Amino acid sequence: MSTIGYLQDGFESVQSRIRTTIETPFYGNNVATVATLKEAYFLAKESPGSIELTGMPVYEPEKQGLPEGANVLLFNDGAVVGRCAAARRIVGEPGVNIDEYAAKLREAVYGTRFRTLYRAEAVVGLDPDFMLKAHLLVPEGHEHILYNWLLNFQYINECYSEMYTNSRPYPEGDIFVFSDPDWRHPDHPLGLAFFDPLHNCAALLGLRYFGEHKKGTLTLAWGVAVRNGFISCHGGLKRYSLPGGKSFVMAVFGLSGSGKSILTHAKHDGKYDVMILHDDAVVVHCDEKYSVALEPTYFDKTQDYPLGSEANKFIITLQNNGVTRDKEGRLYPLTVDLRNGNGRAIKSRLWSPNRVDRVDEPINAIFWLMKDPTMPPVVKITEASLGSAMGATLATKRTTAERLAPGVDPNALVFEPYANPFRTYPLGVDYERFKALLDGGVDCYILNTGDFMGKKVEPKHTLGIIEAIVEGKARFVPWGNFSKLQIMEIEGFAADFSDPKYKEQFSARMNDRIRFVKERETEKGGFDKLPPEALEVLEEVLHEAG
To answer: 267 and 225 in contact (C-beta within 8 Å)?
Structure first.
């Protein structure tokens, strides 16, 4: 059995004040267990405010554990339609007082005493070499969260029950997530996402958005992975089959809106036989190099798939979208972002007929997806320390998937190390593991999926670059005076350091990176401090830029 679901002597992973506070209400006499996906569907369908889209049947519902004739269900939140990083508190970080938060959690649990709660179980990780059991508890009235959670992760049917029983064991406790979206507290006007990562438990309080529950569960699963010899990846991974029995495995890392999902699912006009692992949550074993997907389905923004898109055939649920009806009275969604800017859908794994849950071949190339206007459409990094340092300073724009604290500029360029804002372990761990991966022969590239000095980098440019790299036809040339950076010459995207304006802006963005790394030395008590070499290689790039 993969994780430990009950108390055993010697296993500290299931023994802590926070964990026992979170786990205990799962066994209350006001708790109803939801054992099947069908049961979750009917509960969500009848939940107040739920909309059954009568013009949008679920494609092949029986294959997905749903009842025959099931329709897509839609549920909308209120003002908040995104994740809130400012609500996160993590045991072990400076300023997180255990006594204070333990008391708040006890009161939050007590506040559910006179309410019916629903409990469900799922597995995170879809291969016997990495499978974790997870448990979710939500109050009555929020059945849609439970339904989406069971769709997003793998509900436990006969097949997966047997697979889990025979999976690789880990000395870790099961994941427990306690949720009360109706909770309010004057100290936490944005809500509270409280994590005890070493004990695999979390409390999500005052947070209605389903993405908090998805990423909250993944946050704990990624922590387990890191403690047990994996690299945790908020990214997409796909395998290309090439002539002569060759293959090419690529991994792309980027936040929502960076093109991560589009690049992962790109069909390249049928040029290649492609296998998709996942577009969001993957773990890679550090020594054995195989990769495992953590989720069966896809949680995508709907704005990229307007009404009539072929991809919408595979939608199971919708969140934060408008609805209208046709002349026959059938209900349909408005998947363009008219309502709130972050409409979401869960798409079934049937969307990718070439879907796999494990890739055994090692990764050949990593692509950091950035929206840094001073980066050309593609940059090749030829040295592992710099490759990992650029991943640690991955530059991007904030997205509508994130709820920001008051006063935060949504348009500012920000750094999100390795495109993973859900890390609960020191940043230095990711730095060393990605560096080791690159040292082992993995190529490293930056793809600018935004604009370069005011000119939009189109998907055709990015896909053309990827195809050239996959086929081994890409020609990279030295870039200025840089010793560890190369570029592909692409018409209309001249990265010319003889242009004073360009040189000034490039240097400014590198200085931003250097400042970010220096700040890690003191912020959170140095919890995310990087090795000195990370700063040194970035300063070298700045120096070579002149």
So the answer is: no
